[in-house]
Specification:
Layout lengths: L3 H18 L3 H9 L5 H23 L5 H21 L5 H21 L7 H18 L3 H8 L6 H26 L3 H8 L1 H23 L12 H29 L18 H18 L1
Helix pairs in contact: 1-2, 1-10, 2-3, 3-8, 3-10, 4-6, 4-8, 6-7, 11-12
Length: about 290
């Protein structure tokens, strides 16, 4: 069974990143965890973390959920999700990993080479149905559902809230279906259910930082979650600045309280400004800030 601590850290990191940037939580979770643990077991865990992530967003913004769109998406995707969930136990882990990689490559190519392509209506419905099947196996069907349905939403807030409701309901149904199939899934839930609460907390913290980033971004940079390299560069710079400011403040605080952090092997006190690491951080800070202004 996967180690609880490692899984918890990866899940919290993945869904905090998703809450900041708007996508990729389950992909990051499966991608990183796949280096350490059996992929088949991770897919069962992904139901728990995906369910809790959707619930966290739903608690924040349930008023913006579009019931009409939610029911429509569930009708299109529920059969495929149930079938996909059923297939989890019938594929070996190495096969599941290869299919997972292929899905990511295909989706990445679509976004890289055809970012603004407009699909005909019948193809949009196909993507939504396909998204349900992929959601059933890998819990990452959201991007494919949105490829076929995102233009139906009236606002980003409605999209975010409705999709959160979708993830909560569809993953709950998948988990119940897995329990109905028998096996050891209830034991997995008993061991790993605390991760659900940690993931919810990470989503809320990530969304807090997302709102802060949206406020401080320069006016010439579009204020949305998926608007290219410049937007993400400014987000990276903002996070780096906040980390540097917090670290610098803590070091100065420690310096006033104790000299422990500033003792070298020969126990001589050194001024913080002379620390090479601090100077390197400052240089990196200035460099990134100049890029952002440029």
């Amino acid at each position: 069974m996967p180690n609880f601590s490692i899984i918890a850290i990866i899940a919290c990191f993945a869904y905090a990143i998703e809450s900041i940037f708007g996508f990729g939580g389950t992909i990051i979770f499966l991608g990183l965890s796949g280096f350490f643990f059996d992929f088949n077991s991770l897919l069962k865990l992904a139901m728990i973390v995906g369910l809790s992530s959707g619930l966290a967003v739903l608690i924040q913004s349930y008023k913006h959920v579009s019931t009409k769109h939610l029911i429509k998406i569930l009708i299109y995707t529920m059969p495929g999700a149930i079938i996909g969930t059923y297939f989890i136990n019938y594929f070996a882990s190495d096969v599941l990993i290869k299919i997972f990689a292929l899905i990511l490559i295909v989706y990445g190519c679509f976004n890289l080479f055809f970012p603004n392509i407009i699909f005909p209506q019948i193809l949009r419905k196909f993507f939504v149905i396909l998204g349900g099947f992929i959601q059933g196996i890998y819990t990452i069907g959201g991007p494919f559902v949105l490829m076929g349905y995102k233009d139906s939403f009236s606002s980003k807030q409605e999209l975010r809230s409705t999709m959160a409701g979708y993830f909560f309901i569809i993953n709950s149904l998948r988990a119940l279906f897995f329990v109905f199939l028998g096996g050891s899934y209830l034991n997995i839930v008993k061991i790993y259910y605390p991760i659900a609460f940690l993931v919810m907390l990470s989503v809320w913290i990530g969304y807090y930082f997302h709102k802060k980033i949206s406020v401080v971004l320069p006016p010439n940079i579009p204020n949305n979650r998926c608007c290219g390299f410049n937007h993400h560069l400014h987000i990276f710079i903002f996070i780096f600045k906040k980390i540097f400011h917090t670290w610098y403040w803590l070091m100065n605080l420690c310096k006033t309280k104790t000299n422990f952090f500033f003792r070298l092997p020969n126990r001589r006190k050194r001024n913080m400004q002379s620390n090479k690491f601090v100077r390197s951080m400052k240089n990196c800070y200035i460099f990134l800030d100049s890029i952002a202004k440029f």
